[in-house]
Amino acid sequence: MKYKRVLLKLSGEALMGKKSFGIDQERLAEYAHQVKEISEAGVQVAIVIGGGNIFRGIQAEEGGMDRVQGDYMGMLATVINSMALQSALESIGVKTRLLSAIKMEQICEPFIRRRAVRHLEKMRVVIFGAGTGNPYFTTDTAAALRAIEVEADVILKGTRVDGIYTADPEKDSKATKYETITFDEVYKKGLEVMDMTAFTLCNENKLPIIVFDMNTNGNLKKLITGEPIGTLVEF
């Protein structure tokens, strides 16, 4: 395997599948099986999921809600998604641990870095919920932070497109895909890979990012074996 320990970042919107809101059980099961594949292959897997399929703090602010309150509500949405993924994984025999940045003793463990690393070493899939536990930070930033803390080899950003393009491929038919791109090039071209705080964290800590299509079954397994899936952001 090319990678020993990875952090998989999934968007909450991806869990909607064909629905307009909430969680699509078929999509959830697909993701769980892909994670099981790489875990059984010997890869230590950590996961961060967004909450946009349930609630987005920044949209709440636009509607007049207090931004901090909205962000905390968004963090709780990520815990709901994390619990759903944990359930889907455990139903197919994958041992998991859900660690939250906000204390919720009845449903998940508090995030403690050494404990998280120990779970990974024991080949448990670790899901990090509630973002960073702080308002004004996205789940992209949470993914970058946790990946650095547990010394992951790479962040795998699962999206609905198969990499980074010169423009939005859903809007521009002439957009071309990058196989690899450097952090400096992303800055100069103004491409959107992750939010700037998360992206800068990865750059400063020399943590590569791979953007790939998570909705194509088998892509995750191919990626961790070294096949050129998606776009690699390197140094």
Outline the secondary-structure elements.
Layout: E1 5-10, H1 25-40, E2 44-49, H2 57-62, H3 67-90, E3 96-100, E4 109-110, H4 113-121, E5 125-129, H5 139-149, E6 154-159, E7 164-165, E8 177-178, E9 180-182, H6 183-189, H7 196-204, E10 209-213, H8 219-224, E11 231-234
Parallel strand pairs: 1-2, 1-6, 2-5, 3-4, 3-5, 6-10, 9-11
Antiparallel strand pairs: 7-8, 10-11
Helix pairs in contact: 1-3, 5-7
Quick tags:
about 240 residues, alpha/beta, Carbamate kinase, 9-stranded mixed sheet, two-stranded antiparallel sheet, 11 strands, about 20% strand, globular
Protein architecture, described:
This protein has 235 residues and is of the alpha/beta class. It has a single domain (5-54, 80-234), classed as 3-Layer(aba) Sandwich (Carbamate kinase). The protein is 37% helix and 20% strand. The chain contains eight helices and eleven strands. The strands form two sheets. A nine-stranded mixed sheet has the order 4-3-5-2-1-6-10-11-9, with helices on both faces. The protein has a two-stranded antiparallel ribbon with strand order 7-8. Helix 1 crosses helix 3 and helix 5 runs parallel beside helix 7 (196-204). It is globular, with a radius of gyration of 17 Å. The relative contact order is 0.16. The model has no long low-confidence stretch (mean pLDDT 94).
